Amino acid sequence: MGPTQKPNVCRQLSRRALGFFSRDAGVVQRTNLGILRVLVCQESTKFKNVWTTHSKSPIAYERGRIYFDNYRCCVSSVASEPRKLYEMPKCSKSEKIEDALLWECPVGEILPNPSDYKSSLIALTAHNWLFRISATTGKVLEKIYLASYCKFRYLSWDTPQEVIAVKSAQNKCSALARQIFGNVTDATLSHGILIVMYSSGLVRLYSFQAIIEQFMQQKLDLGCACRWGGTAGTVGEAPFGIPCNIKITDSPPLLFEVSSLENAFQIGGHPWHYIITPNKKKQKGVFHICALKDNSLAKNGIQEMECCSLESDWIYFHPDASGRIIHVGPNQVKVLKLNEVENNSAQHQISEDFVILANREKNKNENLLTVTASGRVVKKTFNLLDDDPEQETFKIVDYEDELDLLSVVAVTQIDAEGKAHLDFHCNEYGTLLKSIPLEESWDVTYSHEVYFDRDLVLHIEQKPSRVFSCYVYQMVCDPGEEETTNRSCEKE
C-alpha cells in the first residue's frame, strides 16, 4: 500500500463551515479529530512542558482534570497553563476519598436537575459514603450511605458509564460462603459477569443477573422506606444504609472455569477468545490464546516473546475493539490479529499485523576479558538482558482512541540518568508518526504513568518516601518552522 494523501486542513475547515457534514452529527466530531491528528503529528508541532508540581499524596488524572490530595483538589489541564477548578473543604481521615470514577456519559431520560446532565465525580469515602460531586465546582450533588457491615474501598465500572460496582476490602467469609464458593482471594464484576479468583490460580465466571434472580431476598430502591431485620429506615441514608439483599444459599450456575498463573485471564476478540498463562511458574511469559466456545487453542495460539529480561512481557486485547491483541516486550511491540483458518471457518489463527521495534544496536553480545593467576587472558562472550537499561526499552504502551494512535514510551539509561521519549504510531499500520522527548529524568526504579489525551501529555511518577511528581506537556504549533517531510499513515 502506497502513501496516502495528507488531508488538507484548510479544505476540511471550509467544508465544515459550509455544512457539508450536517447530515450526520458524528461526522463533524470525527472531522475535527482528524484535523487535530494532523496537527499533532506534523513535524513543526512541539510538546512543551508548561507545568510541573509535586505532592505528598497520590496524583490522579481523568479527562483533562488532575486530582490532588485524595481528589479534594482539582486542576484543569485544558487551559494554556493548568489552573485550579476547585478545592473542597479539609476533612478528617475517616472522610477522605478512597477511590473515584468520572461519570460523563449523556443519558437518555429526563433528570430532575440541569446539573445532573453534566460531568460528575463518583467518589467513595473512607466512612462508606458514595458521593456524586460536580466535576467543575466540587459541590456535592448527591450522597448515599452504603453500610456499616464492611469496609468499602474500591470503585469500578460494571457497564462503563452506566453501572458502578463498589467493592470492599477482603473479609473473612462465612462457613456457608466457603462451602459454596471455596476460599476466594478476590472477586470483581465486569459486564454483568461475576469473576471469582482463587489462590490456586483458578478463575470462575458466573452470571450476576442469574444470581440476582435466584437469590435476591427483597428489591431495594434508593430513597424509599424499608423494613429489614426488624429495623426500619430509608435506603441509602445513615445509619440504615443499603442492606445486603442477596443471600446465596446454593452454588450458582457456573458459566466458565479456567486455571491460569497468578489468575491472569482476559476475554476479547471476534469471535470471543481468552488469554491465559499455563498455571506453572516455569510457564511465566508464555500465553495461550483459546476459543471461549470450546477451549480449543488457536492455530499459532501459543505466544512467547523469548526475551531474556528482569521484567516480564505482557499481553492484552487491543482496546480499539478491533479484536486484535497487543503483546509488549522490552524491545518490541507486536500487534496480532485473529483470523479464520483458510478452508476451516470453525478454527482461528493468530498472525502478526505489525511489529514495532526498539531502536537498538544489532550486536548485543559483549566480550569480557579475564586475566588468570598465570597471566593468561580468557575472553568470554555473554548476552545483555533484553531490558538492559543502557538499551532503549519499552515501558508503557497505550491507545488514544479519539486520534486512533498508539502511544509508546521508550526509556534509555545513560550513566545515572534515564531519558524517555513518547512515540505516536499509526494504529492501523504501526508507522512512526511523531516522537516527543520528555525533559525530566526517568528513573526506571520509580513507578510511572503517562497519559496522552488529544493535545496533552501528562507524566506522573512516584518517588521514594511517597513523593509524587506531575509533568504536563501541551501541544504548541510553531509557525516559524515549515514541515519538510510527509509522514503518512502507511504500511512499511
Q: What keyword list fits this structure?
A:
single chain; 4-stranded antiparallel sheet; about 10% helix; globular
Q: Quick recap of the structure?
A:
This protein has helices at residues 9-17, 25-41, 175-181, 208-215, and strands at 45-55, 60-62, 65-68, 73-76, 83-87, 97-103, 120-125, 129-134, 140-145, 152-159, 163-168, 184-190, 193-198, 202-207, 225-228, 231-234, 254-259, 265-268, 273-276, 286-291, 297-304, 314-317, 325-328, 332-341, 344-357, 365-371, 377-383, 393-400, 405-414, 417-426, 432-437, 447-453, 456-463, 467-477. The chain is mostly beta strands.
Give the helices and strands, then pairings.
Layout: H1 9-17, H2 25-41, E1 45-55, E2 60-62, E3 65-68, E4 73-76, E5 83-87, E6 97-103, E7 120-125, E8 129-134, E9 140-145, E10 152-159, E11 163-168, H3 175-181, E12 184-190, E13 193-198, E14 202-207, H4 208-215, E15 225-228, E16 231-234, E17 254-259, E18 265-268, E19 273-276, E20 286-291, E21 297-304, E22 314-317, E23 325-328, E24 332-341, E25 344-357, E26 365-371, E27 377-383, E28 393-400, E29 405-414, E30 417-426, E31 432-437, E32 447-453, E33 456-463, E34 467-477
Antiparallel strand pairs: 1-34, 2-3, 3-4, 4-5, 6-7, 7-8, 8-9, 10-11, 12-13, 13-14, 14-17, 15-16, 18-19, 19-20, 20-21, 22-23, 23-24, 24-25, 26-27, 28-29, 29-30, 30-31, 32-33, 33-34
